[in-house]
Amino acid sequence: MSARELVVLGTASQVPTRHRNHNGYLLRWDGEGILFDPGEGTQRQMLRAGVAAHDLNRLCVTHFHGDHSLGLAGVIQRINLDRVPHPVTAHYPRSGRRFFDRLRYATAYRETVALTEAPVDADGPLATTPAYTLDARRLSHPVESYGYRLTEPDGRRMLPDRLAAHGIAGPDVGRLQREGVLDGVTLDEVSEVRRGQRFAFVMDTRLCDGVHALAEGCDLLVIESTFLDEDESLATDHGHLTAGQAARVARDAGVRHLVLTHFSQRYSEPEEFERQARAAGYAGELTVARDLMRVPVPKRR
């Protein structure tokens, strides 16, 4: 199993269908699990996908429409039932705190886990760990909505030919990495910057500055494409994107792998979303999401 992958739990918008569950997406990132927008039925989809409550470290809700949040009650209660041994943090729009409280305490249960609430009320960083920084950006939807972006810190890539030219080998390589200089040779002379990987999650929104900021330079972008291009006016009216709009965002942002999801029940041919995305000029790796599929984060460049 990839150490960095997206597990798609559901891909429907507004209402589930026979073949699509409500939203739900788990990002596995080096031993951590971030669950985005758990809609109704997420707990069962987790079981089908082999995702345990113990895998969850963060819950990230973009907004409080039911297809993005009704699964919170079951997921939170499962976290407590299974006595997850580590803290879990929940991020959601602060303006929707009353909805979060109702879902968190929808029924009686025994709380056994420290669930930390860290609401979002502005653009900017939400959390910084050794593995990533998590940021939020405001989106454009009839209710307050935020997208999320995960950025890995830049690292260094050692260059074997330059190391050999300076006679550095074995344990001395590690020493140079730790100390930054060895016998007058600096780390910059024998290595180059290895850009950290970037992931973004963009749900219900019209085109806006936040969409472009979240997508910029992403290795993996998960983005809604509720409508096909012929229904663009409908998408704008309801605060959504079309397949072509999402693809143009990814094209202009230099996205390496684009995942389209959150499909209206009015469409029965998923291939058309891919066709319209390609017609919009996106040439990178493209996935039209299906329930229970796994999408690996692209390998570093």
Describe this structure in words.
With 301 residues, the chain is α/β, with parallel strands linked by helices. Helix content is 26%, strand content 26%. The protein has ten helices and 18 strands. It has helices at 42-49, 66-69, 72-81, 97-104, 160-165, 171-179, 209-215, 232-238, 243-253, 271-279, and strands at 4-10, 24-29, 32-36, 58-60, 88-91, 115-117, 124-128, 133-138, 146-151, 155-158, 181-182, 185-186, 191-194, 198-202, 220-224, 257-261, 285-288, 294-296. The strands form four sheets. It has a seven-stranded mixed beta sheet. Strand 5, helix 4 and strand 6 (115-117) form a beta-alpha-beta unit. It is globular, with a radius of gyration of 21 Å. The two termini are 20 Å apart. The mean pLDDT is 96.
Please summarize what this structure is.
26% of the residues lie in helices and 26% in strands.
Descriptors:
seven-stranded mixed β-sheet; alpha/beta; 10 helices; 301 residues; 18 strands
Number of beta strands: 18
Query: What gross morphology would you assign?
Result: globular
Q: Estimate percent helicity.
A: 25-40%
The largest β sheet comes out as: 7 strands, mixed
The overall average pLDDT, rounded, is: 96
Query: How far apart lie the N and C ends?
Result: 20 Å
Radius of gyration: 21 Å
Write down the secondary-structure element order. EEEHEHHEHEEEEEHHEEEEHEHHEHEE
Total number of helices: 10
Give the strand order, joined by hyphens, for the main sheet.
6-5-4-3-2-1-18
Helix-strand makeup class = alpha/beta
**Portion in beta strands:** 25-35%
**Low-confidence segments:** none
